[in-house]
Amino acid sequence: MNGGNSAAFTRPPTAELHIHVEAAIDPTHIMAMSRKNGVPLPYLDEADLRSRYAFRNLQEFLNLHYLNLTVLKTEEDFFQLATGYLDGAVGANVRRAEIFFDAQIHLGNGVQIEALMGGLTAAFGASQESHGISTDLIMCFSRDLGTQAAHEMLTLIMPYRDRIIGVGLDSTEIGFGPELYTEVYARAAAEGLHLVAHAGEEGGPDTVMATIDLLHIKRVDHGVRVMEDPKLVERLRTEQIAVTTCPLSNVALGTIPTLADHPLPRMLAEGLLATVSSDGPPYFGGNVDVNYQAIHDELGMTKNDIHLLARNSFEAAFIAPTDRDRWLGEVDAYFAAAE
Ligand code: ADE
Ligand code: ZN
User: To which H or E segment does residue 101 belong?
Assistant: First the structure.
C-alpha cells in the first residue's frame, strides 16, 4: 500500500454485493457482547482476540468466526451488528449493499428468528434514512449443515419472505458440492428469490461450472480460479454472470499468496462482470474502499479499471433500472471529476 495516501479515484460510489453482516463485527463489539450476554469466550482480552486474526485457510477463519458469533443473542445485538456495518459502509462510499446473513448459525445458537429478523430489518429497513445507503438482505445457507437443514431454513424464513431478496450459499466449500442444494435452490427460485452462491473460493473452476449448471445462479461469489477454464470464462462472459471478488479476503485466507497474484485484471480483460467487495472488513483488512485502494497500489489497477469495477457493481446489483441509471450516472460523474 502507499502509506495511506488515497488515490483520487479509489473511493468511488459503489455497490457492495459480497458482504457477510456477521463478518462486519469488530473485536470491541465481540468482547462487549460477550460480557453483556454472559457468553464466555476463550480470549484474555480484545488484544488477544485481535492477535488471532491470522488465518491459513477458510476453515481456520470460519472456526473463529462461528465461535465469535455465539455472543449475538438479542434483537438489539443484531441491530447493533447491522448498524456497525452501515457506519463503515457509509465511510467507504457504499450506495447500495446486498447483505448476506447466516440464519442457520444464529438459530443454532438459540436466537429467536424474530430477534434476528427484527434487529436486522430495523437497521437495514431504515438504512436509506439513517445512512443514505440502499440495502437488501440475502440469506445464505450454511453448506456444511447439509440439504435437510437448508430446506428447513427456507421453510422457516418464509414468513419473512418480503424481507429478503435472495438466497446464497456460504461456509466450508470443499466436500459440500452444489448438488446438495439443487432442490432447495429450485424452491427459492419458485419463490421469486434471486440466486447467488459462493463457489471457487477454495475449489476449482469445475465447482463453479457445476454451481452455475445446478443452481442457476446469477452471481458467483469469489470465483478466484475461474480463469483456469476457458469454457467457463466464455460462459461467464456470454451470460454475464457476475463474479463478486474480495481481493483482501482472498489474501487473508491464503486463497492467493499475494494481492499481485489476483486474477481480477485478467477477468476484466476477458470482459467478465467482475466486482469488488470486502467480505468482512474487520477480519480481512478493510472496507470496500480499502480494497479498491489496494488493487490500485498492489495490482496496478488503473483509474479506468476502477471506473469499470464500480460500474460493474451496479450492473450486477439486484436493483430497478431507474436506480441503476442514477447510480451509474453518479459513478461516471465521480470519475469525470477525479484526477
Ligand atoms: N462466511 C463468512 N465469510 C465467508 C467466506 N469468505 N466464505 C465462506 N463463508 C463465509
Ligand atoms: Zn463471502
Answer: strand 94-101
0.85 exceeded by pTM = yes
User: One-letter amino acid identity for 240?
Assistant: Q
CA–centroid distance, residue 229 to ligand 1 (Å)? 24
Nearest to 17 by CA among 226, 261, 326, 274: 274
Helix residue spans in the chain (DSSP H): 27-37, 46-51, 58-68, 75-91, 103-108, 113-125, 127-131, 147-157, 182-190, 205-215, 230-239, 247-252, 264-269, 281-284, 288-299, 303-315, 321-337
Q: Is the CB of 307 under 6 A from ligand 1?
A: no
CA of 332 to the centre of ligand 1 (A): 31
Question: Which is the catalytic residue, given 173, 201, 202, 298?
Answer: 201
Whether residue 229 lies inside any domain: the answer is: no
Residue 14 C-alpha cell reads as 459503489
From 53, 67, 170, the mutation candidate for ligand 1 (largest count of ligand atoms within 8 A of CB) is 170
Ligand 1 binding pocket includes 201 (Cβ within 6 Å): yes
**Centre of ligand 1 from the C-alpha of residue 336, in Å:** 35
CA atoms of 294 and 298, how far apart (whole Å): 6
Residue 84: CB partners within 8 Å, gap ≥ 6?
24, 25, 26, 29
CATH at 325: 3.20.20.140
- Measured by CA distance, the residue closest to atom 10 of ligand 1 is 171
Query: pLDDT by residue (tens digit) across 213-258?
Result: 999 999 999 999 999 999 999 999 999 999 999 999 999 999 999 9
Q: Which residue has the cell 445512512?
A: 131
User: How many domains does the chain contain in total?
Assistant: 1
Is residue 232 situated within a structural domain?
no
Q: Give the structural domain span for 315.
A: 6-194+247-337
Q: Look at phi and psi of residue 300 and say left if phi exceeds 0, alpha if psi is from -120 to 50, else beta.
A: left
Q: Are 127 and 47 in contact (CB under 8 A)?
A: no
User: For the segment 175-205, what is each residue's pLDDT rounded down to a tens digit?
Assistant: 999 999 999 999 999 999 999 999 999 999 9
